Amino acid sequence: MTRSILYVLALCILVGCNNDATNTTPPVATGTPPARDTKPVPKFDRDSAYAYVEQQVNFGPRVVNTDAHRQTRDWLIEQLERFGAQVTKQDFEARAFDGTNLSATNIIARYAPELEDRILLAAHWDTRPFADSELEDDPNAIVNGADDGASGVGVLLEIARQLGLNTPDIGVDIVLLDAEDYGEANASNPNSYGLGAQYYAKNVPSPKPRFGILLDMVGARDATFLVEGYSEKYGKDIVRKVWRLADQMGYGNYYVNERGSGITDDHYFINTIAGIPTIDIINLKKDGQGSFAPHWHTGDDNMDVIDKRTLRAAGQVVLATVFREAAGTL
User: Fold this and answer.
1) Residue 139 carries which DSSP code?
2) What is the pTM assigned to this prediction?
3) Which of 59, 117, 152, 322 could form a disulfide with 215 if both were Cys (CB 3.0 to 4.6 A apart)?
4) What is the reported pLDDT for 38?
């Protein structure tokens, strides 16, 4: 690609090429040079992210110990390697709440592995083995996990593709966590969830990331990313930066600066075990209770609920966060 094309692309990103949402990054303040070389924020391709979500769903429910789970694992590793990441598997055995032995795998994709200063981006790639939402009438319904699992992974795959083309001056660890959703119903045993995150938090590769962002349920139409409770507790400064940047980029209707409930999600264990300040970008309803979307843990969690605009709102802001943090201008 010629320099002139790169310049036009960078200019397009800065002024906003799409007409359904502003995806620009705020300008660097004049008279205050960035701490590092500034590289333009790449444009997040929402169609590409959507295709990655769809491919995961096409494998079927990614329940641990199933063929669909193994096929998805191999495909994810193949994609990340194709995008230029240094990929390692973190295989582990875990005992589920019901006594099932889970053979699971965290997938760790590192960009610029030689750099000490690193950011963690994470999502879980497994799906719920049963439909247990009180809104689901059919207990045998198939949970395809288009939003709950695949959306965050799809966004991170597109970010990985962009990082392979436009590496910022900071290390990035993309971690796809397994066995998040094989927990006891009704959250009666919160520690039965996030088994992959618990393993990762006890075995974080060196150098340890400085902070992290978790993406969970970031693909549904009209999603609202409230400020999740544990994110505020452990990563208040990160929340402030990301939500402010999102508002400046025109995504304030998604990143709503209102407090939601604390969710025992993967980031909880990364915060409390690994000590990495990590926030959760997650779709929470604005009803004062921080409850989830109606398709959560039901047979309705399929591609019909996925909206490309929401995927872009999540992905473009996270991409901008990485590149602005690399430049010292976040």
Assistant:
1) T
2) 0.88
3) 152
4) 80
